[in-house]
Write a structure and sequence with these properties.
47 strands; Trefoil (Acidic Fibroblast Growth Factor, subunit A); disordered N terminus; alpha+beta; 21 helices; Rossmann fold; 5 domains
Length: 996
C-alpha cells in the first residue's frame, strides 16, 4: 500500500526501508545477546543520533533504525514511554499554553488570547509567546505531572460566531489577523528558529470548529470558497512560517467526515517546509467507533488506521494508558490496514520534533539551560501588565470623560468584577491577582480615596413550610447547605451574583466561598466557580405566589441528579439535596442588603465612578457549552443605570471574552472600556489606561452586533451566503471590526502606491502621545463571484508624539487579491478595479485609492468536463457530505426540492446529455432534475436511480436533455444550470455534454 504520507520525508539523507532496518537491528541484537553485553548510557551517547553535527534526517533515521516495531508503535500515543537501552527518555505531547503555562502550578498569566489579538501588535504577542515558552522550559527542570515541551497552542479557529463558547480562546473573525497573531505567538513559543525549538506549538483545532453544541456529531459544511478563502487561510501562515510544528484535529465533522480522519490533515503538510507532528484531540479516536458518538468505524483498529493514513501521528486517547492505541495499531498492521511505512512515517514525524527540541543534544540543546527562575520573573510580570493595557479597547468616550485627570482624587469602584479576577478553563494559576479596585487604589496612592464594593445583593432564604433558614458552614471547607437557622444570621447569608440567562452563583457570607454540588449535597467550599462541569450554578425561579424555588443549573448532565430532579429540597435532617419540582422547597427571599443601593451610596459625590461588569468565564459559555445570548446580565445592566443616574462621571468597564449586545447602555454612559479577562495584572493595567499612563489602542477583532437577530444559525458555516463577519455583513453593527478609540486624534494623508504595497502618512493631531492601528482593506468592484464588502490585507500599530507624522507602509501584493475559482479549482486574480482603503476601522476609512489589475477573466464553465458537485455557485436545502470514508465531498439533499446552481455555463450548441455519479439509500428519492436558469426554470431532463444500498456506493445515471421551448437557434451559451435533487440523494460529480 502506497500512502501519500510516504512521500513526505523531508530534510535529505537516504532512508532505508523499515524491513531492512529491522533485519539489521535484529542481527545487531543477536550479536549483543551472544556476547552477553548490554547497551548502557555511555554506549548510547556514541550513537550517531546523539551527534548534533549530523543532518536531522540522518539522526532521525539512525534512532528509528534502532527501535523495535513495538517501540515505534509506542511513539504513536500521547504518552511515549522511555527506551532505557538507548538512553531515550519518556515524552508526552500536550501542555496547555494558551495565554500562559496552565495546570502545572503558578505561572505568569497573560490576557486571554482574544485580548492578545486585540493589541494588533504582533511583536508584543511574539514576546508574550516567548515568555510562555521560557516558562514551559522552566518547568522541565522539575517535570511536574502533565509537563511537556509540545504545547497545545495557539487556537487558530476563526471567531465566525461570537456565541461560540470558546470565543476567548481564538483571535479574530478575520483569517489574515488570526494568521498574523498565530504566527507571532507561535514564533515566540518556538524561539524563532524552527531547527532548534524552544517548544513545539500545535495549532488547535483543525478544522471548522466554531460551535460546542453537539461538537462531536455536528458537521461544518465548508464549501470550497469558504474552506480555501476563510478557514485554511488562518492555519496556513503559522505553518508556512515555521511557527507551529503540527495541528490538532478537531472533534467536529467537516463535510460529513470526522476531522480526525480528514485528508485535509495531510494536505496541511504542504504548507510547511518541515514534517509536522499532527495529533488528535483528547478521546477523539473513540468517537469514531460504532460504540462512540460518530459511528464511523467498527473497530478501534479501523479507526486508528484511517486516522494515521489521513495524517494523524499521535493519538490522544485513554489518558496515560497507551495500551488500547498500541494494540489497535498492531492489529491494524496485522490485518493489512497499515504498512510498516505508515508506522515509520508517523514515528519519523514525532521524532523529528523531539530532535528539534534538543532532546538528544548535549545539555538539552539551545534551550536546555532555562530553569524555573524564569517563571513569573519581573520581566514577565511587566510584560503581562503591558499586554493587558495594550489589549483594552476604548469603545466610547464622550466629552473627554477619559482619561481621568490629576484632579480625580476620590473614585468609587463598584460592580461584580471590581474586587476579583476570574480564570478561564485554560488559564494558568496566577502567582498574584491585582483587582480593578486594587489597581486604581495603587495608582492614586495615599493622596486619593478609593471606595466601592461588588454591588451584589445579600440575601437569606427561608423555607416557607418549616420556617427555617438555609445555612452554610464556616471555615475554608464549609459544609453542605441545610435548613437549620431560625434567624438570618451570618451563616444564613449569601451574596448573589447574576451572570445572565437566569444563572446565578451563591457565595456564602460565612466563609466567602461559593456553593456547589458535590454529587450528594451543596457545600460552600470553592474559591470561584470551576471544574469541567461547573457545579456552582443556580437559578432562583419566582413562583406566582411570590415564593422562590432554588434550582441547580450546573453542567453535569451525566450525574444522578438528572433522574432525581434539579430543584433543592431538605432531607429529614434539613440537609439540602436534589429533588423534583413538585417536592422542592419553597423559599422566601429576604434581601438583607441591596447591592445597587450600596453602589449608589458609594458613588454619590465622588470625582468618578468606575463600574466593572462582565462575565464569569466558566458560566454561560465555555468549552462544551455555547453562549445562550450575548447580553449583559440584567442585574448588571440595572446596576450601571443606577450608578449613572447617581454620578454623571461614570465609566463602565466591561470585562468579558466576547462581543456584547449592550442595549441602551452603550449610548447612556459617557465612557465605555472593554477588556478580556486580562490576567494577573488586570487592575494595574486598567488603572494605566483609565488615568492615561497608557493610551488605549486596542482594537476589536470581531464585529459587535446589536442583536442575536443579526446572526444566522450557529451551525451555518457559510459566511458568504449568510453575510457573516465584517467581510459580508450588510447591517449596522454596534461596533465595527477594527474599532477602538484613542485619547488623541489622527489625520491620514493620501494613500499612495509604493513597491510591494501602499504608504500613508499618519499625523497625531492631538495634544498627547498615542498609538494608532492603521488598517488596510481592499474591495473588488466587479467579479464573477460574490466578493467581500471589505477584506483586511495589512495593518500596523504605530506610536506618535503630539504633532508628529509617520509614513506607514502596508504590504499588498498581487497574489493577495486572489480568490478561489470554483469553476477550475484554482486561485485566480481577476482583472478589474479594486478599491484600496486605509483607515482606523473597517467602517472608518480615512484614505482611499483605486488599483487597476490586469488579471484573468474567468471563462464560462465547461460542464462537458466532470464537475464536482460541491463546486456550485449557489444552493438551497443541501448539505456537504463525505463521498467516501477516506476522501471526497458530495452534495446531499436534506429535503425534496433541494438544488445547486452552476452559473455561467457554456452549453455550446445546447445541452445534449447529462450524466452523474450518485448514491441513494433506502428512503431516498432517486430523481435528479436538470433545469435551466433557476430551480424552477425550464426542465431539460431527469435522471433517475432505483437506489444503491449504501451512501458510499455510487452508480452512474444519465438522461438525454431536450431543448426548452423557445430556445434560440444559436444554442444556449453562458446560462446557469440548476440541479434539483430528490430527498436524500447524494451527488458526487456530473457532466453536461453539448448536443451534437
Amino acid at each position: 500500500m502506497t500512502t501519500r504520507r510516504g512521500l513526505r520525508h523531508r530534510g535529505g539523507g537516504r532512508r532505508r526501508s523499515w524491513w531492512a532496518q529491522r533485519a539489521a537491528q535484529g542481527l545487531a541484537l543477536a550479536l549483543v545477546a551472544a556476547l552477553g553485553t548490554a547497551v548502557d548510557t555511555s554506549a548510547a551517547a556514541a550513537y550517531p543520533f546523539r551527534d548534533p553535527a549530523l543532518p536531522l534526517a540522518e539522526r532521525v533515521d539512525d534512532l528509528l533504525g534502532r527501535l523495535t516495531l513495538d517501540e515505534r508503535i509506542s511513539l504513536l500515543h500521547q504518552y511515549e514511554p522511555a527506551v532505557p537501552r538507548l538512553g531515550v527518555g519518556a515524552f508526552r505531547t500536550g501542555t496547555e499554553a494558551l495565554h500562559g503555562v496552565a495546570w502545572l502550578g503558578e505561572a505568569t498569566v497573560f490576557p486571554q488570547a482574544l485580548g492578545l489579538a486585540s493589541t494588533w501588535d504582533p511583536d508584543l504577542v511574539r514576546r508574550v509567546g516567548s515568555a510562555v515558552g521560557d516558562e514551559d522550559r522552566g518547568f522541565q527542570q522539575e517535570r511536574p505531572p502533565g509537563w511537556g515541551l509540545n504545547v497545545w497552542a495557539p487556537v487558530v479557529n476563526l471567531l465566525r460566531d461570537p456565541r461560540w463558547g470558546r470565543n476567548e480562546e481564538g483571535y479574530s473573525e478575520d483569517p489574515y489577523l488570526t494568521g498574523a497573531m498565530a504566527t507571532a505567538y507561535g514564533t515566540g513559543l518556538t524561539g524563532g528558529d524552527p531547527d532548534h525549538l524552544k517548544t513545539a506549538p500545535t495549532l488547535k483545532h483543525f478544522l471548522g470548529n466554531n460551535n460546542e453544541v453537539h461538537r462531536d456529531t455536528t458537521s461544518s459544511d465548508l464549501r470550497p470558497r469558504v474552506l480555501k478563502e476563510y478557514e485554511e487561510r488562518a492555519f496556513e501562515p503559522p505553518l508556512s512560517a515555521g511557527a507551529a510544528t503540527g495541528v490538532m484535529s478537531s472533534y467536529n465533522l467537516v463535510n460529513g467526515r470526522p476531522a480526525t480522519v480528514s485528508p485535509l490533515l495531510d494536505e496541511a503538510r504542504d504548507w510547511s517546509g518541515r514534517d509536522l507532528l499532527n495529533l488528535t484531540d483528547a478521546g477523539a479516536p473513540d468517537n469514531l467507533l460504532t460504540t462512540g458518538s460518530q459511528k464511523y468505524y467498527g473497530t478501534l483498529a479501523e479507526g486508528d488506521a484511517a486516522a494515521l493514513r489521513a495524517g494523524v501521528d499521535s493519538f490522544t486517547s485513554d489518558d496515560a494508558d497507551p495500551g488500547p492505541t498500541t494494540t489497535a495499531i498492531r492489529t491494524a498492521l496485522d490485518e493489512g490496514l497499515l504498512t510498516g511505512a505508515d508506522i515509520d512515517d508517523a514515528a519519523r514525524h514525532i521524532l523529528g520534533v523531539r530532535f528539534r527540541l534538543g532532546e538528544f543534544d548535549p545539555g538539552g540543546g539551545r534551550y536546555g539551560s532555562i530553569d524555573a527562575s524564569v517563571i513569573n520573573s519581573p520581566g514577565h510580570r511587566a510584560l503581562a501588565r503591558r499586554a493587558a493595557a495594550e489589549s483594552m479597547v476604548l469603545l466610547k468616550n464622550t466629552s473627554r470623560a477619559l482619561p481621568l485627570t490629576a484632579a480625580t482624587r476620590s473614585v468609587a469602584v463598584v460592580g461584580p468584577l471590581s474586587d476579583t479576577l476570574y480564570s478561564d478553563w485554560y488559564s494558568g494559576t496566577p502567582p498574584y491577582r491585582v483587582t480593578p479596585r486594587e489597581g486604581i487604589a495603587a495608582r492614586l496612592g495615599a493622596a486619593g480615596s478609593v471606595t466601592g464594593g461588588e454591588a451584589v445583593d445579600r440575601i437569606a432564604l427561608k423555607d416557607t413550610a418549616t420556617g427555617k433558614y438555609v445555612t452554610a458552614g464556616t471555615g475554608a471547607g464549609g459544609a453542605p447547605l441545610r435548613e437549620s437557622g431560625t434567624t438570618a444570621s451570618d451563616e444564613a447569608r449569601f451574596d448573589v451574583f447574576d451572570w445572565g440567562a437566569g444563572v446565578l452563583t451563591l457565595r456564602a457570607a460565612a466563609n466567602g466561598r461559593y456553593v456547589g454540588y458535590d454529587g450528594v449535597g451543596f457545600p460552600n467550599d470553592q474559591d470561584q466557580p470551576n471544574g469541567w462541569y461547573v457545579r456552582q450554578q443556580f437559578a432562583l425561579d419566582r413562583q406566582d405566589d411570590g415564593d422562590y424555588l432554588l434550582r441547580y443549573a450546573g453542567y453535569d448532565t451525566a450525574e444522578s441528579w438528572w433522574t432525581q430532579g434539579t430543584y433543592l429540597g431538605p432531607a429529614a435532617d434539613g440537609t439540602l439535596g436534589l429533588t423534583t419540582k413538585d417536592r422542592a422547597a419553597h423559599f422566601t427571599k429576604d434581601v438583607l442588603s441591596s447591592g445597587t443601593d450600596q453602589a449608589v451610596a458609594a458613588v454619590e459625590g465622588k470625582d468618578a465612578a468606575v463600574v466593572v461588569v462582565g462575565s464569569m468565564p466558566a458560566i454561560n459559555g465555555r468549552e462544551a457549552h455555547d453562549r445562550p445570548d450575548m447580553a449583559l446580565a440584567p442585574a448588571q445592566q440595572a446596576l450601571v443605570e443606577s450608578v449613572r443616574a447617581a454620578n454623571p462621571h461614570t465609566v463602565v468597564v466591561v470585562e468579558n471574552s466576547y462581543p456584547t449586545t449592550l442595549g441602551d447602555l452603550a449610548k447612556d454612559v459617557p465612557a465605555l472600556l472593554w477588556t478580556t479577562h486580562a490576567g494577573q495584572e488586570t487592575g494595574n493595567a486598567l488603572a494605566d489606561v483609565l488615568f492615561g499612563a497608557t493610551d488605549p489602542a486596542g482594537r476589536l477583532t470581531q464585529t459587535w452586533y446589536r442583536s442575536e437577530s443579526d446572526l444566522p444559525d450557529l451551525l451555518d458555516y457559510d459566511i458568504i451566503k449568510g453575510d457573516r463577519t465584517y467581510q459580508y455583513f450588510r447591517g449596522e453593527p454596534l461596533y465595527p471590526f477594527g474599532h477602538g478609540l484613542s485619547y488623541t486624534s489622527f489625520r491620514y494623508g493620501p494613500l499612495t502606491a509604493v513597491p510591494g504595497g501602499y504608504r500613508v502618512r499618519v499625523t497625531n493631531t492631538g495634544d498627547r502621545a498615542g498609538d494608532e492601528v492603521v488598517q488596510l482593506y481592499t474591495h473588488q468592484r466587479a467579479s464573477r463571484d460574490k466578493q467581500p464588502l471589505k477584506r483586511l490585507r495589512a495593518f500596523a500599530r504605530v506610536s506618535l508624539e503630539p504633532g508628529s507624522t509617520k509614513a506607514v507602509t502596508l504590504r499588498l501584493s498581487r497574489s493577495d487579491l486572489a480568490h478561489w475559482d470554483v469553476t477550475r479549482s484554482k486561485w485566480v486574480v481577476e482583472g478589474g478595479t479594486y478599491d484600496v482603503m486605509a483607515g482606523a476601522s473597517s467602517a472608518d476609512i480615512r484614505s482611499r485609492t483605486r488599483l487597476t489589475v490586469h488579471g484573468e477573466t474567468i471563462p464560462p464553465r465547461d460542464l462537458a468536463r466532470p464537475t464536482r458537485a460541491e463546486d456550485f455557485d449557489d444552493y438551497d436545502g443541501v448539505r456537504l457530505v463525505d463521498e467516501s470514508r477516506a476522501a471526497g465531498t458530495a452534495v446531499q439533499a436534506a429535503a425534496a426540492g433541494a438544488w445547486t446552481r452552476y452559473a455561467d455555463a457554456d452549453l455550446g450548441a445546447g445541452a445534449g446529455r447529462f450524466s452523474a455519479k450518485v448514491a441513494c439509500t433506502a428512503g431516498c428519492e432517486g430523481t435528479l432534475e436538470v433545469r435551466l436558469g433557476s430551480p424552477s426554470g425550464p426542465l431539460l431532463g431527469t435522471a433517475r436511480t432505483a437506489g444503491t444500498g449504501s451512501p458510499y456506493s455510487y452508480t452512474s445515471v444519465s438522461a438525454d436533455l431536450r431543448p426548452p421551448p423557445g430556445r434560440a437557434a444559436h444554442g444556449e451559451r453562458a446560462r446557469d444550470v440548476c440541479l434539483v435533487l430528490g430527498k436524500g440523494l447524494r451527488l458526487a460529480e456530473f457532466t453536461v455534454r453539448p448536443a451534437g
